[in-house]
Design goal:
Helix 4 runs parallel beside helix 5 and helix 7 packs parallel to helix 8. Helix content is 32%, strand content 16%. It is an alpha/beta fold and 346 residues long. The chain has 9 helices and 12 strands. The chain is globular.
């Protein structure tokens, strides 16, 4: 696994004279979604229940800080299940796994805990259903992303990955009358719809999934950043480089009027030069980012004179997902008070 980056110490951000009225527009919703919260709690509870080490295939969620903190508690992150000692506990990440991974874990006698986000599981089931009916599935998503690999693995002979709108112009199908599109849950809504539009121009009988595949949290965070981007001289997105939804937030901010937008893992990555001539800073975070990292950015911005914080709220989120069945009770069989996973989220 990649070596975690340790936040570096740097000179505090300075209040630059000559800048006008300074403010922060703070997007809401932001940060942890229900699927991420469930997955992180699943690892924490597995460690409490079974003791360290507990193995996790891939990063449980795409955030370097979360992974680092769980490693401190005794989680060991591996690339594949063949790195896990026979008989050990292994947690599958929120992004999901293919049946081949599930079978490989079973063959090694591993005690698997599936922390796949239920919204990703929904897409897996759609892929199985359409493959059973002999549809060709055009899976809109990024090649190499763990979620895409897991979904494609449900029906490898029926899935073609469409990596971008431009690829929609070159995709070939066996039978244009039996084709359906599905998507990765963390994509840009606008880009996905453009890909679908171009696919449908070539395949008029293209079917839609039975319900929206892009998750509610991804959509909500994009709607919030669209609303504030037009008023922002600078947008800061807290999130890791391998977090698809965090990277998309930077793109969406720029597409909807932000003069500049950057992604950071930690507050110490915010550069003094970014603030030159900036009156309004927009701040948000990806769906796998704990709120403490956003607060550190806000604290640093306050030191630079951006202490006036206005929340831009576009939706309320109260969805919670039950933990994996193995973790809903404690060792004595008593229902755990976190069986329905959920920390407070903004």
């Amino acid at each position: 696994m990649p070596v975690p980056r340790i936040p570096r110490r740097r000179e505090p951000l300075k209040d630059i004279s000559g800048t006008g009225q300074k403010r922060v527009l703070l997007a809401s919703p932001r940060g942890y979604c229900a699927g991420v919260d469930r997955a992180v709690i699943a690892v924490e509870k597995a460690l409490e229940r079974y003791g360290a080490p507990v193995y996790v295939r891939k990063q449980i969620v795409h955030n370097i800080h979360v992974v680092t903190e769980l490693e401190k508690q005794g989680a060991i992150f591996v690339e594949e299940v063949d790195e896990v000692p026979a008989g050990a506990h292994v947690v599958f990440s929120a992004h999901g796994v293919s049946p081949a991974v599930v079978n490989a874990a079973s063959d090694r006698g591993l005690r698997a805990i599936d922390a796949t986000c239920p919204l990703v599981t929904k897409v897996h089931r759609e892929a199985v259903r359409f493959a059973r009916d002999d549809y060709e599935i055009l899976l809109i998503g990024h090649v190499g992303h763990e979620e895409v690999e897991g979904t494609a693995g449900e029906a490898p002979d029926h899935v073609t990955i469409v990596n971008s709108p431009d690829e929609a112009d070159t995709i070939e199908v066996r039978d244009p009358s039996k084709v359906v599109w599905l998507s990765q849950t963390t994509l840009s809504v606008d880009e996905t719809m453009e890909t679908v539009r171009r696919l449908r121009a070539r395949f008029p009988e293209l079917q839609d999934p039975p319900s929206d595949d892009i998750c509610y949290a991804t959509q909500n965070r994009q709607v919030a950043i669209k609303k504030l981007a037009k008023d922002a001289d600078l947008v800061i997105v807290v999130g890791s480089a391998n977090s698809s939804n965090s990277v998309r937030l930077v793109e969406v901010a720029l597409e909807h009027g932000a003069k500049a937008a950057y992604r950071v893992d930690y507050a110490d990555e915010v550069e003094q030069a970014w603030l030159e001539g900036v009156e309004t800073v927009g701040v948000t975070s990806g769906a796998s980012v704990p709120e403490v990292l956003v607060q550190q950015v806000l604290d640093d911005l306050a030191a630079a004179g951006y202490s006036d914080v206005e929340e831009v709220r576009t939706a309320e989120e109260d969805l919670q997902f039950s933990l994996p069945k193995e973790l809903r009770t404690d060792a004595a069989g008593k229902r755990d008070d976190r069986a329905l996973g959920g920390r407070s989220r903004s």
